Amino acid sequence: MKRNGAKPTMKVEFTPFISEETAMTTVGQRIRARRDELGWKQDDLAEAANISNSFLSDLENGKRSVGADKLLDIARALSLSLDYLMTGEDASKTKDAAAEVQIPTKLARFAQEAGLTFRQALALLDMQHQIIAHRSSTKKDDLDTVDWQKFYEAVKEFL
Amino acid sequence: MSKLDQSQEVIDLARKLGLQGTPVKAILDHCESQVDTWLSAHDDVCTIEEIERIVLAKSQMVFEEIHDDDDFARLKKVYAHGKGEIVLASMQYRFDDPGTYGSLVRRSKATMNDHDRYVAVIDCRGPKLARRFFTRWHEIAHRLTTHCDKLELVFTEPAFRSETDPVERMMDSIASHIGFYGRLFNPLFTEHCHEHCLTLDAIETIRQAYCGSASFQSTLFACQNRFPSPVVYIEAAEQLKAKDQRSRDQLRMFADDQPTPELRVSKTIRNEAAHESGLTFRRNMRPPEGSVVYRAFYGDEVELSGTEDLGEWTFSAGGSLEPLEVLIEARNVGDRVFATIQPAHSSQCT
């Protein structure tokens, strides 16, 4: 939350690059760090990557190695590049800056009350951004005054 | 320079488009030039509908009009189900707002070559149908400026704006300029408008000749913008004084204290010549009982015209407008009167 009277937002960081302070040396550690960053349990990642919990646990603790295909599944689930998982560096230096996604407070609150997943909340936000010009009878609008409830009701069958 | 020229949003828009000079004129010229370029390969174009078709094709934009609830269902089927553009399933609740006439959407799954990269949804239900023509050109104006391809990654301004927002007013100016495209409109304007007098009859004749689906009001504004002599457009309706409205809104009045709405000026738009000459009206002014505007609202005739002295128009706090003999043409449209006001000495209407 921001202070000083500024509009509060919840900031969720998608940070595909780990800073030097937390440089990881093994694949397992990088997987664990990213999973912690996302707030996922091992169950969540195992399900998303279609691997077993025990396999994931062994992997994170450095007790076993992993093939490229399984690593690719894990990378996709974590929204990380394969390069990064394997080496701790990413070849595409164009993504130097952390990609931050700011979720408006009202959306975050609604998502929590409605039990939406983060991906569903993000989908609503992305769709709202597709509307690039809209004249309304009220004053200049912003994301914190969108009726997220009505929006969600209109599109929930697709989410 | 007009107020719009001095607004930071319009100045910023001109700068982002890489334009120099007076912002409003530069933006209008930019849009006209773009349309001219597209039309240069179509010498035989002779209607504004044909021009719109070409502009839409070049802009990779389509319109979807809403005439009833079935159209919302169709949008959902074609776009949300058919093309994965889920946001278009949410249009119905967005158009509940009486002030929303259109919404421009960028498709997320379109390729760079798709003809419908942009979908403009236009509300044509009930009274909004009358603005269909102008709303379409308003959305095109957005596509040509705030969301032209070179600004797609740069323009991150809020998408939701009120009609008084400077960017929205700029879009209205563009719509009035290119929706009433010079090559087609100007000859009609010259043919039917007297050099010193803009009449409602002339506007209607031009409207029918240019495009029957254009509204009278949008045609009036297009004529007013081009007219070389001062013309002020006003609307008048029954309403409370601003401070009485605030008190009522705040529920600070008892039943027997409630003030009565009176006929007051609710909107005023000047052309460039009126701005330069200082001819002006203020919102909330009350037309005097002898005024053409007053008689048009409370009388039996739908249309009235006549000359009067602006010095008779007084302010409730004291004072009056500068004395000036003016010609007023007024039309009653039910809940309000609209009128054009021009200096009588320059009006030689026959």
Q: Numbering strands along the chain, what is their spatial order in the largest sheet of chain A?
A: 1-2
Q: What would you report as the Rg of chain B, rounded to the nearest angstrom?
A: 22 Å
Main sheet strand line-up of chain B = 6-5-9-8-7
Mean pLDDT of chain B: 89
Low-pLDDT residue intervals, each spanning 5 or more residues of chain B: none
Total strands of chain A: 3
- Tell me the Rg of chain A in angstroms: 19 Å
Listing every helix as H and every strand as E from the N terminus to the C terminus, the arrangement of chain B reads HHHHEHHEEHEHHHHEHEHHEEE
How big a fraction of the residues of chain B is strand? 15-25%
Description:
The complex is a heterodimer of chains A (159) and B (350). In chain A, helix 2 packs across helix 4. Chain A has helices spanning 27-38, 42-49, 53-60, 68-78, 82-87, 105-114, 118-130, 148-155, and strands at residues 9-14, 99-104, 131-136. Chain A is elongated and about 60 Å long. A two-stranded antiparallel ribbon of chain A has the order 1-2. Chain A is built from eight helices and three strands. By secondary structure, chain A is mainly alpha-helical. Chain B is of the alpha+beta class. Chain B has helices at 3-6, 8-16, 23-39, 48-59, 69-83, 91-94, 132-144, 166-178, 182-192, 200-210, 216-226, 242-249, 272-277, 292-298; strands at 61-66, 102-106, 118-123, 160-162, 232-239, 262-270, 303-309, 325-332, 337-343. In chain B, the strands form two sheets. Chain B has a five-stranded antiparallel β-sheet. Chain B is built from 14 helices and nine strands. The chains are: A mainly alpha (159), B alpha+beta (350). Chain A binds chain B through residues 123, 126-128, 130-142, 147, 150-151, 153-155, 158-159, and chain B through 80, 85-87, 89-90, 92-94, 97-108, 118, 138-139, 142, 146-147, 158-163, 165, 168, 171. Strand 3 of chain A pairs antiparallel with strand 2 (102-106) of chain B.
